[in-house]
Amino acid sequence: MWSTEVVRHFLRQLCSIPLLTHSCIDLDEISALVLDPGYSSTRAGFAGEDVPKSVTPSYYGVISSSEAHDKLLFGDNSIHTPLANLGINNPMSKDGTVEDWDTAAKLWEYAITSRLTNAKPSNPMSNGLNDADNSAMDVDIEGAQDQEKPLEENPLLMTETGWNSGKGREKGIEIAMESWGCPAFWLARNGVLAAYVATLKPLYDTNE
Predict the structure, then answer these.
(1) Closest residue by Cα to residue 49 from 3, 6, 114, 11
(2) What is the 3-state secondary structure (H, E, C) of the chain?
(3) What is the pLDDT of residue 141?
(4) What pLDDT is stored for residue 206 in this prediction?
C-alpha cells in the first residue's frame, strides 16, 4: 500500500479545498484508508501498512431471480462456489475504468467494511422499532438508514487511471462524499503516485 507520507502529502493538499472536506482534519490522528480498484481485484488498507488488508476479487456473482432485484455476491466464495442460476460479472473494464457504477460502489464498500471497518449500527431509539405508531415504522427505518455513513471517520485516498474521464471523477467523488460520508477524499492517478513513491525510494535504500 502507499506509505503514510504519500497519503499525508495528498491530504495536506486536500485540506486547502473546502469543497472536498467536511471538517478540519488532524493529520497526526487520522486513520486514512487507501482504495485501489482494478480489473482483477480491489485492494484496500490503511495508510502506512506494507500490504493491503483487504483483497477482494473485482468479479462478483449474480443470482438471477423472478424478483425485482437480482442477488449480488461479493468475495472469493461468490465466484468459486457453484450455485444455481449464478452468473459472473465485473463492474470494471480491462483498462481500469468503471462500467457499472452502482455495482462498483457496492463492491468497494464491501472491500472496505468487510475487513477494515464495520457498518455503523443505527440508534435503537430512532430506528422505528420502539415507536408506538407502527404505521410510521417503515419511514423511520428508512430515514435512519439514510443517515448511516460507513466511512464518516476515515479520510479516503482512491487511485484512478490516467485516462479516467471527468464524469468518472465526479461520480467517484459523489460516492465517497455523499454515499460514504468521508470527511476528506482525494482521487490520485496511479502514475502520479508511482512517481511520488519513486522519489522517496532512494531515501529508504541508502542503507542497503
Answers:
(1) 3
(2) CCCHHHHHHHHHHHCCCHHHECCCCCCCCCCCEEEEECCCEEEEEECCCCCCCEEEECCEEEECCCCCCCEEECCHHHHHCCCCCEEEECCECCCCCECCHHHHHHHHHHHHHCCCCCCCCCCCCCCCCCCCCHHHHHHHHHHHHHHCCCCCCCCEEEEECCCCCHHHHHHHHHHHHHHCCCCEEEEEEHHHHHHHHHHHHHHHCCCC
(3) 37
(4) 36
What φ, ψ does residue 93 adopt, rounded to 5°?
-90, 170
Q: All domains of the chain, ordered by start, with CATH?
A: 4-52+95-117+154-204 (3.30.420.40), 123-152 (no CATH)
Give mean pLDDT, residues 165-169.
93
What phi and psi values does residue 25 have, to the nearest 5 degrees?
-115, 130
Residue percentage of the chain with pLDDT more than 90:
38
Q: Does residue 55 carry a pLDDT above 80? A: yes
Calculate the dihedral angle through the C-alpha atoms of 110, 114, 89, 142, rounding to the nearest 10 degrees.
-40
Which pLDDT score, from 0 to 100, does residue 81 have?
Answer: 84
CA distances from 95 to 13, 37, 110, 127 (A): 28, 12, 22, 42
Cα–Cα–Cα angle for 96, 186, 175, nearest 5°?
70
**Per-residue confidence (pLDDT) for residue 3, from 0 to 100:** 53
